[in-house]
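Sequence, C-alpha coordinates passed on for absentees:
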Amino acid sequence: MNDFIYHNPDKVYFGKNQIKHLPEELLKFGKKILLVYGGGSIKKNGLYDTVVELLKSADFEVFELAGVEPNPRHTTVNKGVEICKNEDVDVVLAVGGGSTIDCAKGIAAAAVTESGDVWDLVSNRVWITNAMPVVAILTNAATGSEMDGWAVISNMDTNEKIGLGGNALIPRVAFENPKLSFSLPTYQTACGAFDIFNHVLDNYYLAGDATFDLILEFQEAVMRAVVKWAPVAMKEPTNYDARANLMWASSMALNTILDGGTVHGCACHAMEHELSAYYDITHGHGLAIVTPRWLEYILDETTAPAIYRLGVKVFGIPENLSVIDGAKKAIEAVENFCFNILGLKPNLSDLGIDEKHFKAMAEHACRGSVISGPKNLAPDDVLAIYKMCL
Protein backbone atom coordinates (compact mmCIF):
# COMPACT_ATOMS: atom_id res chain seq x y z
CA MET A 1 0.00 0.00 0.00
CA ASN A 2 1.38 3.42 -0.96
CA ASP A 3 1.47 6.50 1.27
CA PHE A 4 -1.23 9.02 0.39
CA ILE A 5 -2.80 12.35 1.29
CA TYR A 6 -6.54 12.76 1.02
CA HIS A 7 -8.09 16.22 0.80
CA ASN A 8 -11.27 17.14 -1.03
CA PRO A 9 -12.76 20.51 -0.06
CA ASP A 10 -15.94 20.15 -2.15
CA LYS A 11 -19.09 20.73 -0.08
CA VAL A 12 -21.90 18.53 -1.41
CA TYR A 13 -25.63 19.11 -0.97
CA PHE A 14 -27.24 15.78 -1.89
CA GLY A 15 -31.00 15.31 -2.15
CA LYS A 16 -34.30 16.58 -3.45
CA ASN A 17 -34.60 20.03 -1.87
CA GLN A 18 -31.03 21.20 -1.43
CA ILE A 19 -31.09 23.79 -4.23
CA LYS A 20 -32.55 26.28 -1.73
CA HIS A 21 -29.03 26.64 -0.32
CA LEU A 22 -27.62 27.88 -3.64
CA PRO A 23 -27.83 31.66 -2.92
CA GLU A 24 -26.15 31.42 0.48
CA GLU A 25 -23.27 29.44 -0.98
CA LEU A 26 -22.78 31.71 -3.98
CA LEU A 27 -22.78 34.81 -1.76
CA LYS A 28 -19.54 33.57 -0.21
CA PHE A 29 -17.81 34.31 -3.51
CA GLY A 30 -19.52 37.43 -4.80
CA LYS A 31 -22.58 38.79 -6.59
CA LYS A 32 -21.59 38.43 -10.25
CA ILE A 33 -22.36 34.99 -11.68
CA LEU A 34 -21.50 33.34 -14.99
CA LEU A 35 -24.20 30.73 -15.57
CA VAL A 36 -22.87 27.96 -17.83
CA TYR A 37 -25.11 25.32 -19.39
CA GLY A 38 -25.50 23.11 -22.45
CA GLY A 39 -28.04 22.56 -25.18
CA GLY A 40 -31.17 23.70 -23.40
CA SER A 41 -32.44 20.64 -21.52
CA ILE A 42 -32.40 22.63 -18.29
CA LYS A 43 -34.91 25.01 -19.86
CA LYS A 44 -37.18 22.15 -20.89
CA ASN A 45 -37.23 20.54 -17.45
CA GLY A 46 -37.65 23.80 -15.54
CA LEU A 47 -34.29 23.80 -13.78
CA TYR A 48 -33.15 26.95 -15.57
CA ASP A 49 -36.17 28.89 -14.29
CA THR A 50 -35.63 27.61 -10.77
CA VAL A 51 -31.98 28.63 -10.73
CA VAL A 52 -32.60 32.06 -12.28
CA GLU A 53 -35.42 32.76 -9.83
CA LEU A 54 -33.17 31.89 -6.89
CA LEU A 55 -30.40 34.11 -8.23
CA LYS A 56 -32.73 37.04 -8.86
CA SER A 57 -34.27 36.72 -5.40
CA ALA A 58 -30.82 37.32 -3.91
CA ASP A 59 -30.01 40.17 -6.34
CA PHE A 60 -27.19 38.42 -8.18
CA GLU A 61 -26.03 39.86 -11.49
CA VAL A 62 -26.16 36.98 -13.93
CA PHE A 63 -24.32 36.52 -17.23
CA GLU A 64 -24.83 33.42 -19.38
CA LEU A 65 -22.82 31.05 -21.54
CA ALA A 66 -25.16 28.57 -23.25
CA GLY A 67 -24.55 25.82 -25.79
CA VAL A 68 -21.68 23.89 -24.18
CA GLU A 69 -20.96 20.84 -26.35
CA PRO A 70 -20.94 17.20 -25.13
CA ASN A 71 -17.16 17.28 -25.67
CA PRO A 72 -16.57 20.93 -24.63
CA ARG A 73 -14.53 22.94 -27.13
CA HIS A 74 -11.69 25.21 -26.14
CA THR A 75 -13.32 27.93 -28.22
CA THR A 76 -16.48 27.73 -26.10
CA VAL A 77 -14.39 27.89 -22.92
CA ASN A 78 -12.64 30.99 -24.22
CA LYS A 79 -16.00 32.69 -24.85
CA GLY A 80 -16.78 32.21 -21.19
CA VAL A 81 -13.36 33.53 -20.21
CA GLU A 82 -14.02 36.68 -22.21
CA ILE A 83 -17.30 37.25 -20.37
CA CYS A 84 -15.60 36.77 -17.00
CA LYS A 85 -12.85 39.24 -17.82
CA ASN A 86 -15.11 41.87 -19.37
CA GLU A 87 -17.76 41.72 -16.63
CA ASP A 88 -15.50 41.08 -13.64
CA VAL A 89 -17.40 37.90 -12.77
CA ASP A 90 -16.92 36.47 -9.25
CA VAL A 91 -17.96 32.82 -9.59
CA VAL A 92 -18.74 30.33 -12.35
CA LEU A 93 -21.97 28.34 -11.88
CA ALA A 94 -22.21 25.18 -13.98
CA VAL A 95 -25.67 23.66 -14.42
CA GLY A 96 -25.58 20.35 -16.28
CA GLY A 97 -23.51 17.21 -16.70
CA GLY A 98 -19.80 16.61 -16.78
CA SER A 99 -19.17 18.48 -20.02
CA THR A 100 -20.76 21.64 -18.67
CA ILE A 101 -18.82 21.38 -15.42
CA ASP A 102 -15.58 20.72 -17.33
CA CYS A 103 -16.22 23.82 -19.43
CA ALA A 104 -16.80 25.86 -16.28
CA LYS A 105 -13.53 24.62 -14.82
CA GLY A 106 -11.67 25.59 -17.99
CA ILE A 107 -13.21 29.05 -17.78
CA ALA A 108 -12.27 29.37 -14.12
CA ALA A 109 -8.65 28.44 -14.84
CA ALA A 110 -8.10 30.58 -17.92
CA ALA A 111 -9.96 33.65 -16.62
CA VAL A 112 -7.16 34.38 -14.14
CA THR A 113 -4.44 34.22 -16.82
CA GLU A 114 -3.20 37.09 -18.91
CA SER A 115 -3.84 35.40 -22.27
CA GLY A 116 -7.31 34.11 -21.39
CA ASP A 117 -6.74 31.12 -23.68
CA VAL A 118 -7.50 27.80 -22.04
CA TRP A 119 -5.58 25.87 -24.69
CA ASP A 120 -2.35 27.46 -23.48
CA LEU A 121 -2.97 25.73 -20.16
CA VAL A 122 -4.18 22.44 -21.64
CA SER A 123 -1.47 22.00 -24.27
CA ASN A 124 1.30 22.88 -21.82
CA ARG A 125 -0.03 20.55 -19.13
CA VAL A 126 -0.19 23.33 -16.55
CA TRP A 127 -1.23 22.13 -13.08
CA ILE A 128 -3.89 24.60 -11.95
CA THR A 129 -3.25 26.11 -8.51
CA ASN A 130 -5.21 29.34 -9.05
CA ALA A 131 -8.70 29.63 -10.51
CA MET A 132 -12.03 31.33 -10.03
CA PRO A 133 -14.45 29.47 -7.75
CA VAL A 134 -16.73 26.95 -9.46
CA VAL A 135 -20.12 25.81 -8.14
CA ALA A 136 -21.84 22.86 -9.84
CA ILE A 137 -25.46 21.75 -10.10
CA LEU A 138 -25.30 18.19 -11.42
CA THR A 139 -27.91 16.78 -13.81
CA ASN A 140 -26.20 13.60 -15.06
CA ALA A 141 -24.32 10.84 -13.27
CA ALA A 142 -21.24 10.10 -15.35
CA THR A 143 -17.90 11.87 -15.29
CA GLY A 144 -17.52 12.71 -11.59
CA SER A 145 -16.49 16.26 -12.50
CA GLU A 146 -18.74 17.58 -9.72
CA MET A 147 -16.21 16.41 -7.10
CA ASP A 148 -12.84 16.14 -8.80
CA GLY A 149 -9.99 18.38 -9.89
CA TRP A 150 -10.05 17.57 -13.59
CA ALA A 151 -11.63 18.82 -16.79
CA VAL A 152 -11.31 17.46 -20.31
CA ILE A 153 -11.24 20.01 -23.12
CA SER A 154 -11.38 19.34 -26.88
CA ASN A 155 -9.67 21.15 -29.72
CA MET A 156 -11.44 19.97 -32.85
CA ASP A 157 -9.04 21.94 -35.08
CA THR A 158 -6.18 19.67 -34.04
CA ASN A 159 -8.20 16.54 -33.11
CA GLU A 160 -7.06 16.69 -29.50
CA LYS A 161 -8.96 15.94 -26.31
CA ILE A 162 -6.78 16.55 -23.26
CA GLY A 163 -7.24 16.71 -19.52
CA LEU A 164 -6.68 19.87 -17.48
CA GLY A 165 -5.98 19.22 -13.81
CA GLY A 166 -5.30 20.98 -10.53
CA ASN A 167 -6.58 21.24 -6.99
CA ALA A 168 -7.97 24.69 -7.75
CA LEU A 169 -10.44 23.10 -10.19
CA ILE A 170 -12.32 21.14 -7.53
CA PRO A 171 -15.77 22.76 -7.27
CA ARG A 172 -16.25 24.65 -4.03
CA VAL A 173 -19.84 23.42 -3.76
CA ALA A 174 -21.86 20.79 -5.63
CA PHE A 175 -25.62 20.23 -5.65
CA GLU A 176 -26.68 16.68 -6.48
CA ASN A 177 -30.38 16.05 -6.87
CA PRO A 178 -31.10 12.63 -8.40
CA LYS A 179 -34.49 13.89 -9.60
CA LEU A 180 -32.71 16.15 -12.08
CA SER A 181 -31.59 13.06 -13.97
CA PHE A 182 -35.12 11.66 -14.36
CA SER A 183 -35.49 13.16 -17.85
CA LEU A 184 -32.22 11.80 -19.23
CA PRO A 185 -32.60 9.70 -22.40
CA THR A 186 -31.95 6.00 -21.93
CA TYR A 187 -28.84 6.21 -24.10
CA GLN A 188 -27.29 8.94 -21.95
CA THR A 189 -28.07 6.99 -18.81
CA ALA A 190 -26.31 3.94 -20.25
CA CYS A 191 -23.26 5.89 -21.42
CA GLY A 192 -22.97 7.72 -18.12
CA ALA A 193 -23.22 4.49 -16.17
CA PHE A 194 -20.35 2.90 -18.04
CA ASP A 195 -18.23 6.02 -17.67
CA ILE A 196 -18.59 5.62 -13.89
CA PHE A 197 -17.77 1.92 -14.09
CA ASN A 198 -14.63 2.51 -16.14
CA HIS A 199 -13.35 5.27 -13.85
CA VAL A 200 -13.25 2.71 -11.06
CA LEU A 201 -11.89 -0.04 -13.29
CA ASP A 202 -8.90 2.13 -14.27
CA ASN A 203 -7.93 2.44 -10.62
CA TYR A 204 -8.82 -1.13 -9.71
CA TYR A 205 -6.42 -2.67 -12.21
CA LEU A 206 -3.56 -0.23 -11.97
CA ALA A 207 -3.15 -0.89 -8.24
CA GLY A 208 -0.86 -3.84 -8.98
CA ASP A 209 0.94 -4.76 -5.77
CA ALA A 210 -0.19 -1.52 -4.11
CA THR A 211 -3.36 -3.09 -2.80
CA PHE A 212 -5.41 -1.83 0.12
CA ASP A 213 -8.22 -4.20 1.09
CA LEU A 214 -10.58 -1.51 2.33
CA ILE A 215 -10.22 0.55 -0.84
CA LEU A 216 -10.45 -2.54 -3.05
CA GLU A 217 -13.79 -3.43 -1.44
CA PHE A 218 -15.00 0.16 -1.87
CA GLN A 219 -14.11 0.06 -5.56
CA GLU A 220 -15.98 -3.18 -6.08
CA ALA A 221 -19.00 -1.82 -4.20
CA VAL A 222 -19.19 1.18 -6.52
CA MET A 223 -18.95 -1.03 -9.62
CA ARG A 224 -21.61 -3.38 -8.21
CA ALA A 225 -23.89 -0.40 -7.62
CA VAL A 226 -23.55 0.63 -11.26
CA VAL A 227 -24.21 -2.91 -12.50
CA LYS A 228 -27.27 -3.19 -10.24
CA TRP A 229 -28.87 0.21 -10.66
CA ALA A 230 -28.09 1.27 -14.26
CA PRO A 231 -30.59 -1.16 -15.83
CA VAL A 232 -33.20 -0.11 -13.27
CA ALA A 233 -32.73 3.57 -14.14
CA MET A 234 -32.98 2.74 -17.83
CA LYS A 235 -36.22 0.80 -17.35
CA GLU A 236 -37.68 3.11 -14.68
CA PRO A 237 -36.30 6.61 -15.38
CA THR A 238 -38.02 8.15 -12.34
CA ASN A 239 -36.80 5.53 -9.85
CA TYR A 240 -35.21 7.77 -7.22
CA ASP A 241 -33.13 5.05 -5.58
CA ALA A 242 -31.62 4.03 -8.92
CA ARG A 243 -30.77 7.60 -9.87
CA ALA A 244 -29.41 8.35 -6.38
CA ASN A 245 -27.12 5.33 -6.37
CA LEU A 246 -25.74 6.22 -9.79
CA MET A 247 -25.26 9.88 -8.91
CA TRP A 248 -23.30 9.17 -5.74
CA ALA A 249 -21.33 6.44 -7.52
CA SER A 250 -20.32 9.08 -10.06
CA SER A 251 -18.91 11.31 -7.33
CA MET A 252 -17.25 8.47 -5.43
CA ALA A 253 -15.53 7.16 -8.55
CA LEU A 254 -13.38 10.25 -9.06
CA ASN A 255 -13.26 12.29 -5.86
CA THR A 256 -10.00 10.41 -5.04
CA ILE A 257 -11.46 8.52 -2.06
CA LEU A 258 -10.99 5.31 -4.08
CA ASP A 259 -7.37 6.17 -4.88
CA GLY A 260 -6.03 5.89 -1.33
CA GLY A 261 -2.87 3.80 -1.23
CA THR A 262 -3.28 2.64 -4.84
CA VAL A 263 -2.38 3.87 -8.32
CA HIS A 264 -4.85 5.64 -10.59
CA GLY A 265 -4.29 5.65 -14.34
CA CYS A 266 -6.56 5.84 -17.32
CA ALA A 267 -5.67 3.27 -19.98
CA CYS A 268 -9.12 3.04 -21.55
CA HIS A 269 -9.75 6.76 -21.16
CA ALA A 270 -6.50 7.56 -22.96
CA MET A 271 -7.58 5.40 -25.90
CA GLU A 272 -11.17 6.66 -25.94
CA HIS A 273 -10.22 10.33 -25.82
CA GLU A 274 -8.69 9.87 -29.25
CA LEU A 275 -11.99 8.48 -30.55
CA SER A 276 -13.88 11.47 -29.16
CA ALA A 277 -11.31 13.90 -30.50
CA TYR A 278 -11.47 12.54 -34.03
CA TYR A 279 -15.11 11.49 -34.25
CA ASP A 280 -16.91 13.46 -31.50
CA ILE A 281 -18.67 10.33 -30.22
CA THR A 282 -20.28 9.96 -26.80
CA HIS A 283 -17.48 9.29 -24.34
CA GLY A 284 -19.17 6.53 -22.31
CA HIS A 285 -20.11 4.62 -25.45
CA GLY A 286 -16.55 4.75 -26.71
CA LEU A 287 -15.34 3.42 -23.36
CA ALA A 288 -17.83 0.56 -23.51
CA ILE A 289 -16.49 -0.48 -26.90
CA VAL A 290 -12.83 -0.23 -25.88
CA THR A 291 -12.88 -1.70 -22.36
CA PRO A 292 -13.69 -5.39 -22.96
CA ARG A 293 -11.25 -5.47 -25.89
CA TRP A 294 -8.56 -3.97 -23.66
CA LEU A 295 -9.24 -6.61 -21.02
CA GLU A 296 -9.01 -9.34 -23.64
CA TYR A 297 -5.76 -7.90 -25.01
CA ILE A 298 -4.00 -7.69 -21.63
CA LEU A 299 -5.22 -11.08 -20.38
CA ASP A 300 -2.40 -13.43 -19.40
CA GLU A 301 -1.26 -15.36 -16.34
CA THR A 302 -0.20 -12.19 -14.51
CA THR A 303 -3.41 -10.19 -15.10
CA ALA A 304 -5.89 -13.08 -14.90
CA PRO A 305 -6.24 -13.14 -11.08
CA ALA A 306 -7.38 -9.51 -10.89
CA ILE A 307 -9.74 -9.91 -13.85
CA TYR A 308 -11.20 -13.07 -12.32
CA ARG A 309 -11.70 -11.24 -9.03
CA LEU A 310 -13.65 -8.55 -10.91
CA GLY A 311 -15.94 -11.26 -12.25
CA VAL A 312 -16.47 -12.83 -8.83
CA LYS A 313 -16.92 -9.66 -6.77
CA VAL A 314 -18.85 -7.51 -9.25
CA PHE A 315 -20.69 -9.94 -11.54
CA GLY A 316 -21.13 -13.00 -9.30
CA ILE A 317 -19.09 -15.44 -11.38
CA PRO A 318 -18.46 -18.77 -9.57
CA GLU A 319 -15.23 -19.04 -7.59
CA ASN A 320 -14.48 -22.66 -8.54
CA LEU A 321 -13.12 -22.01 -12.05
CA SER A 322 -9.52 -22.02 -13.15
CA VAL A 323 -8.02 -18.54 -12.99
CA ILE A 324 -7.79 -18.17 -16.78
CA ASP A 325 -11.30 -19.53 -17.38
CA GLY A 326 -12.66 -17.29 -14.64
CA ALA A 327 -10.96 -14.25 -16.16
CA LYS A 328 -12.47 -15.08 -19.56
CA LYS A 329 -15.90 -15.36 -17.93
CA ALA A 330 -15.33 -11.97 -16.31
CA ILE A 331 -14.58 -10.37 -19.67
CA GLU A 332 -17.72 -11.97 -21.09
CA ALA A 333 -19.67 -10.45 -18.19
CA VAL A 334 -18.28 -6.99 -18.97
CA GLU A 335 -19.24 -7.43 -22.63
CA ASN A 336 -22.73 -8.57 -21.65
CA PHE A 337 -23.14 -5.56 -19.38
CA CYS A 338 -22.01 -3.12 -22.09
CA PHE A 339 -23.78 -4.50 -25.11
CA ASN A 340 -26.80 -6.43 -23.84
CA ILE A 341 -27.80 -4.91 -20.51
CA LEU A 342 -26.86 -1.31 -21.37
CA GLY A 343 -27.77 -1.91 -25.02
CA LEU A 344 -24.79 -0.03 -26.48
CA LYS A 345 -23.66 -0.88 -30.00
CA PRO A 346 -20.57 -3.09 -29.73
CA ASN A 347 -18.35 -1.96 -32.60
CA LEU A 348 -16.72 1.22 -33.84
CA SER A 349 -18.01 0.39 -37.32
CA ASP A 350 -21.53 0.70 -35.89
CA LEU A 351 -20.69 4.37 -35.27
CA GLY A 352 -19.34 4.90 -38.78
CA ILE A 353 -15.69 4.68 -37.71
CA ASP A 354 -13.05 2.93 -39.82
CA GLU A 355 -9.31 2.51 -39.27
CA LYS A 356 -8.26 5.53 -41.32
CA HIS A 357 -6.90 7.49 -38.34
CA PHE A 358 -6.02 4.60 -36.04
CA LYS A 359 -2.24 4.85 -36.42
CA ALA A 360 -2.16 8.56 -35.66
CA MET A 361 -4.61 8.07 -32.78
CA ALA A 362 -2.52 5.28 -31.27
CA GLU A 363 0.66 7.32 -31.43
CA HIS A 364 -1.01 10.36 -29.92
CA ALA A 365 -2.63 8.31 -27.14
CA CYS A 366 0.83 7.15 -26.04
CA ARG A 367 2.31 10.67 -26.27
CA GLY A 368 5.77 9.49 -27.23
CA SER A 369 5.92 6.85 -24.53
CA VAL A 370 3.50 4.16 -23.36
CA ILE A 371 0.11 4.05 -21.65
CA SER A 372 0.87 2.61 -18.24
CA GLY A 373 -1.22 -0.13 -16.71
CA PRO A 374 -1.20 -3.78 -15.76
CA LYS A 375 0.30 -4.18 -19.23
CA ASN A 376 2.01 -1.11 -20.64
CA LEU A 377 0.67 -0.26 -24.08
CA ALA A 378 2.90 1.01 -26.87
CA PRO A 379 1.39 2.52 -30.05
CA ASP A 380 1.33 -0.88 -31.79
CA ASP A 381 -0.64 -2.30 -28.86
CA VAL A 382 -3.15 0.52 -28.96
CA LEU A 383 -3.49 0.10 -32.72
CA ALA A 384 -4.23 -3.59 -32.24
CA ILE A 385 -6.91 -2.79 -29.64
CA TYR A 386 -8.56 -0.25 -31.95
CA LYS A 387 -8.70 -2.89 -34.68
CA MET A 388 -10.29 -5.36 -32.23
CA CYS A 389 -13.03 -2.75 -31.72
CA LEU A 390 -14.02 -2.57 -35.39
User: Anything to note?
Assistant: The first strand starts at residue 11 and ends at 14. Residues 213-235 form the longest helix (23 residues). Strands lie at 11-14, 32-36, 61-65, 91-96, 134-138, 150-155, 160-165, 173-176. The chain has a mean pLDDT of 94.
